[in-house]
Design brief:
82 residues, 5-stranded antiparallel β-sheet, two-stranded antiparallel sheet, mainly beta
């Protein structure tokens, strides 16, 4: 697995990319997102389908990504809910 987050604090938005490589034995990866307002509610959208809403503090403790096939990739958009 490899994953990274591109965060725009001025917009309250992030893009998260995750890649499951051929040698990855686990179907899941837990990422700890950074730079979020712990008190604000955030929505994360998987561009392959599905959304979740949690606080910034919850996302910073960890967000689990699941990819069944390898190699494969996922792209997420994260934004502050106002």
């Amino acid at each position: 697995w490899i994953a990274w987050q591109f965060h725009r604090a001025d917009l309250g938005e992030s893009v998260v990319q995750a890649f499951r490589r051929l040698g990855a034995t686990s179907e899941t990866l837990t990422v700890k997102l950074r730079g979020l307002d712990p008190q604000q509610r955030h929505e994360i959208e998987n561009l392959d389908g599905g959304k979740q809403v949690r606080t910034g503090a919850e996302f910073m403790r960890g967000h689990t990504i699941t990819l069944s096939e390898k190699p494969s990739a996922a792209l997420f958009l994260l934004r502050v809910l106002k």
